[in-house]
Amino acid sequence: MKRIFTKIFFGYLLIIIVLILPILYFSFNTISENYQRNLIQSQINISHTIDIDIQPLLLSRDLVKLDSVVKDLGGNINSRITIIDINGKVIADSKANPTSMDNHADRPEVVKALQSGLGTSVRHSYTINQDMMYVATPLKVNNALFGVTRLSILMEDYTSLINSLEYKILQIVLIVAVISCLLALFLSRTLTKPIIILAKASKDVANGNFTIRTNVKTNDELESLGDSFNNMIERLESLFNQTNSQKDELNKIISSIQEGLVVIDNNGLIILSNDSFKLITGYEALIGKHYWEVIRDNQANKTIKKMIESEINITAEIELKNDFFICSANHINDKSELVLIFNNISELKKLEYIKRDFVVNVSHELRTPLTVIKGYIETIEDDIEEKNKKYISIIKNHTNRLINIVQDLLTVSQLEDINVKLDISDIDLNSLFENLNNTFEQKLKTKNITLSIDYNNNIHGFMADAFKLEQMFINLIDNAIKYTEKGSIQISASPESDHIKFVISDTGIGIPIKDQDRIFERFYTVDKSRSRQLAGTGLGLSIVKHIVNLHRGKIFLESESDKGSRFTVLLPYSSTLNG
Fold it and tell me: What pTM does this model have?
């Protein structure tokens, strides 16, 4: 890469050369032309003077005297003089015998002089064997044209003089050129020195040296640039220190996070991780590796791949080395990066297993005595006095409620079991909906509620667990009947691109917006007093949610107080995953 000094200096040098060459060319031409013009004019003046001296001799026709006078004059003026008559005959010459000379009528300068009054020519003279300049003027005697007076000068003298002048001019120009080059060198160094200082300082700053400062003293814009550069470095140093401080603080925060944290790009390369994630994977050097190289679990890697490909933030449960984690994925859109946070829930899982086992054991233990109690109540119900039957009725209702709660608890526990299996088979919607209609026929009549079912008879290829699917509908319909005082319940089924869409809607009391996010929680009831009156356990919708999840489906709720509720269930055509 060319240095800026070289560019500026050679730029000046080129300007000097471009200016000098035309000056030399025009100077040489001008000097030569002016000297030649002056020389010709001096020869013309000499010629006129000679004419005055030789006119008397021409009148007397004393040619011998004329030749002698011409030779004397020629010696004095350092020019060769030739007198030629109108016919071209040489009658006098300062250098040679005129009688031995050729006729000059065809000489170009003679011809021009006779025609236009002045003739000049430069050519080789064979008489003296040298290059000559000839100047011829008309020779008149008593205003009558007699011939031509021709003066000739050796070109050697003329060329020598011109060369001497040109050499002196060239010397002067070379001196000026050298001085100009020195000035160009000085100006180039003056201009480029601050720039070089700034360039070197910029390189030092780029390498992380913020202590460098420039000292440019030029009393012009470059000095102002140097001051601005120093201010910029000070600002950069402050920002850099601030950034490093924030980076160190951020690294400390990330390192102190107990949850595992890792950042991966869209190619799956790890670009950041904390110590907790290193403990999870068992690797120290993670940066630059693909996530599947350090996470040795196919199912977990499939889940992470889906998170990368998804455009939304996802949370999923992942099992790694017999530990359970809630993995939260957050996209950094402007960088095409994904932040994964692994929250260890192994202890919660253990507690969940203990709680489930406890619920199952307690439910099993309670079911037998409750069944016995119910049997004895039914036995003594007919033998007890009429005034005490209301107490037996209350005991019987609460016993039935306890039995329902125990049964629902067992159902929920079974559905939450990680080893639960789905008994997948082809679903006959006709048979399913007919059974449902028969199951709730009496309850519907009791509350004067109509049940309408609308579905496409051409739905084929729908596979699910028939028992659990019916259990899901029973809980949804039973829930709708409990909270609907008048009106109707509608069920519809329609095929979509990759799933079946079921809609169960009612015209009941509806669910307030504040409670809609929690209705699928166990034991959660919107109106507890009403739920107790209707012998509700608060587990029905939780069972529904578990069944939908087991089938890898989705459930949505739309509800408005006093206007009813609408549950939408989306189930895939084939739930091939067991458990």
Answer: 0.44
